[in-house]
Every structure is written in C-alpha cells, then in structure tokens.
Amino acid sequence: MKIFLIPCPIAENTSTEVLPPQILTALQQTTHFLVENVRTARRFISELKLGIQIESLTFEVLDKDTQSKTVTDFYKKHSSVEYIGVISEAGCPGVADPGALAVSIAQQQNIEVIPLVGPSSILLGLMGSGFSGQSFAFIGYLPIDKAARIRKIEQLDRDVAKWGQTQIFIETPYRNNALLEDLIAQCAPDSLICIACDVTAPSGFVQTKKASDWAKAQPDLHKKPCIFLLGK
Amino acid sequence: MKIFLIPCPIAENTSTEVLPPQILTALQQTTHFLVENVRTARRFISELKLGIQIESLTFEVLDKDTQSKTVTDFYKKHSSVEYIGVISEAGCPGVADPGALAVSIAQQQNIEVIPLVGPSSILLGLMGSGFSGQSFAFIGYLPIDKAARIRKIEQLDRDVAKWGQTQIFIETPYRNNALLEDLIAQCAPDSLICIACDVTAPSGFVQTKKASDWAKAQPDLHKKPCIFLLGK
Asked: How do residues A125-143 score in pLDDT, each as one tens digit?
C-alpha cells in the first residue's frame, strides 16, 4: 500500500492548467480515497474526464474532526489496496488543510507516502510577493480578539523589519477587508504588505505595496480567497 | 509587460510528469528570460520539445550576485516585450532560490507578476512529513559553526515540542550525513525527524522517524538533494 497526496485546484475551472500529468496518472491508479469532502472530491475527479467510474471508488471522510482510529481502521480494512489517495478541499493536502493525520499515521506504519506537485496559494503568494524565500513562516490565522490581533501585527511588523523572515497568514474570507484595514493601521507606513488574491484564477492578482499605498486604494477582498504576507 | 515565475523540475527527467500545462503555455509565449544559469535554462526549455527556437530567445543572468540595476535595465530595455520569464535552477523561483529580486522590482514598477504552479521540495517535504501544515517555517541553512549549530538544533527541538511549528531546513548536499548525525545526537530520542530526499525522483523518499530510529539505520544522504524537517 502507498499513499498518494493529491493536490487539487484552488480556483474554479483551472484543473487543465494547474495540474501536472503525475496527478492524472495517480488518479487513474487509485481506487480508495481519504477526502475532506466526498461530494467535492467526486466532482473534482469527475470533471477531469479520465474515464474513471466514480461509483466504483471508495471514499472516507478525513476532515479536521477526524480521529486517528478512523484512519487506522481505513488502512487496516484496505491493506491489500495498492494506492490510497488523500485529497483536501483546495490545494495541497496537509498544508493549511487536513491531511497531515493520514500522512502521520502512514509514516508510523512505514507506509510509503508520495507527495504530488500541485497548486498551493501559500507558495504562489510567496513566489509572487518578491519577499525573501530564503526564510519564511506560515502562521495560519491571526488572533480574532482585537487587542491580541493588533499586538500580533505590531510584533510581526517589527520582526520582519528586524529579522527579514517573510510572514504569511490567512483570514476567514468574509473578514479579509477588516484584516487589511488592521494591517494598514498597525504597520509602519513604509512596511510592505503583499496580497495574493484568488491566485491561478483569471481575476486573481499578487500585489506588493507599502501600507501607505494600500491605504490610498483599498481593494475589495470580501469573500475572496486571499493570502497575506509581510516581508522585505 | 508581465512576469511569469516559471518553476522547473527538481529531479532529472521528470518534466513530463511534474510540470502543469500552464508552464508549457507560458514558455511558448515568452521570448525574454531572467535565469539563474543560462546553459541550464536553455537545456530545460529545449528538453520540453515545444518547438521553440532556443537561439531566438534572450537570456540575462539573475543569480545571488545580481544587482538591482541589472534587472531594472533589463525591464527598461525590453519594456515593449509582452512576457518575461524568471527561471531558477530547480523548483520555484524566489523560494530558497534567486528570483525574488526580479519580482520585487516588478512589484515596485507595478508590473504584473504571474506565479505558476510547479515542484517545490520544501512544500513536497512538508506534505509528506505528516507534520503540521497549519504553522511552519523554512529557515534555510543551519549555522556552520559546530557550537552554534548544536545550540540551534536544541532550540528548534524545544520550540517544536513547545509550539508545534514545523521547522524546515536544508544543508549543502555533501554535509547532509553530518547534519543528520547532529540532529540524531542533539534532538530528544522521541523527537520526530523527517527527511525528504530526492523528491519526485523514482529513487526519492519522504520518511518521518524518531531520532532514536534514524540512529539505528542512518541512510546515506551524501550529495543527494534533501530537505530536513522537525515537527510533530
């Protein structure tokens, strides 16, 4: 048994552009899947038009609430299966997305894991930012509490200026505009903020500007998938 | 003018498996390139057999010694060109590789940058480690000085245990075995170390084991491209 870690598109209708051939080959070999959302996973595989009989595939849910036992039982039950695929909702399984549990258990059981190449908004944002890629950190969500969030932004802004490590973070899409306002208000006017919005989509953009320049023309990021970066 | 950030393979003879169609489309549209190494870039494009006349392409070197002026002059001289491609030696431009300078100057000049999907050994290592992808840091090289390196490893090991942020780092390939020995010696016996070696190559592997288990059977990593991760 081997585990394919299968990335999927991060923007609609981009499968044929962003997925490398190795993903299509892996999907054609795989019959059993651990997926964040069964409906989405079925649609993803179906839309690729690989001639796969979706009804013949076996799916088990692997989301943030999944317990170790579910994965362990799945591996045990299907131990004679050649390949198991792990698919999360968008991008790369295990990177700001569920999937790490399936990999962690596979590693403990000496099951070979094969990560496949695919889109990651974090990596694409970093590439497009122009910030240092020699040292960077993805820190997930900033604190929700206003005071804690302001302290965190001030600390990140100082750390970037001092150490130069690029800081990457995300927000719940309906709070993107509020986060950008906080960043503009708390960072020094000359600090560079990069927004990677809807990357790989035709409407997407990756733009780096000074906080004071974002203040002059704040884009509407409401409900759009965004990555935020501070760096130099 | 727009800037394509063009990833290239990280293992030999894998172009046809790991590169998504959008890279081939971009290369067919691009005539001017900023590249880490002209010979390698020519060979990369040539091997894709896209029918591109390599002799008709314009290349300028963009490596770690390149000054801002070189890039600025290149953009100015070729301002009427539709697309400029940035290609580094392996993987994604700007991520543990030169390229950020070209992007940073493009961002300053409001030139659109378009990061394309491709292989990153850092991201593939993270996916395959089973460690947290909710919070992770790439820190580049550890200190060369023995005492400083030991202190750094001890600090990383403690930080991972305490905060859970996955720590990712690299070493000059001929010192990989020495680094693994240091990790085994300095980390707690139960600490998890992941080695992602030659990922995307048929001989590659991504394995996570306790320090004490690596000690029992240390793989030969000499001169092989590796990513090291500490996490939980």
From this structure: 999 999 999 999 999 999 9
* Enclosing domain of residue A58: 2-115
CB contact under 8 A, B107 and A207: yes
Tally of structural domains, chain B? 2
What ipTM was estimated for this complex?
A: 0.96
Residue where a domain stops, chosen among B74, B98, B115? B115
**Do residue A189 and residue A222 come from a single domain?**
yes
Tell me, yes or no, whether A78 and A31 share the same domain. Answer: yes
Calculate the alpha carbon distances from B63 to A126, A134, B88, B100, B132 in Å.
Answer: 18, 14, 8, 10, 32
Decide if B133 and A5 are in contact by the 8 Å CB cutoff.
Answer: no
Q: Residue B70 pLDDT > 90, yes or no?
A: yes
* Nearest neighbour of B132 by CB, restricted to A100, A102, A208: A100
Q: Are B95 and B129 part of one and the same domain?
A: no
B12, two tokens:
């030999």
Asked whether the beta carbons of residue B138 and residue A137 sit closer than 8 angstroms, the reply is yes
Q: Does B184 touch chain A (CB under 8 A)?
A: no
CB contacts, 8 Å: B113 with chain A = 128, 130, 206
Cβ–Cβ under 8 Å, residues B118 and B23: yes
At A52-107, the pLDDT tens digits run 999 999 999 999 899 999 999 999 999 999 999 999 998 999 998 889 999 999 99
3-state SS record for chain B:
CEEEECCECCCCCCHHHHCCHHHHHHHHHCCEEEECCHHHHHHHHHHCCCCCCHHHCEEEECCCCCCHHHHHHHHHHCCCCCEEEEECCCECCCCCCCCHHHHHHHHHCCCEEEECCCCCHHHHHHHHHCCCCCCEEEEEECCCCHHHHHHHHHHHHHHHHHHCCEEEEECCHHHHHHHHHHHHHHCCCCCEEEEEECCCCCCCEEEEEEHHHHHHCCCCCCCCCEEEEEEC
Q: Are residues A91 and A149 in the same domain?
A: no
Claim to verify: residue B62 and residue B97 sit in the same structural domain = yes
User: Do A192 and A87 belong together in one domain?
Assistant: no
Nearest by CB to B126, which of A95, A130, A137?
A95
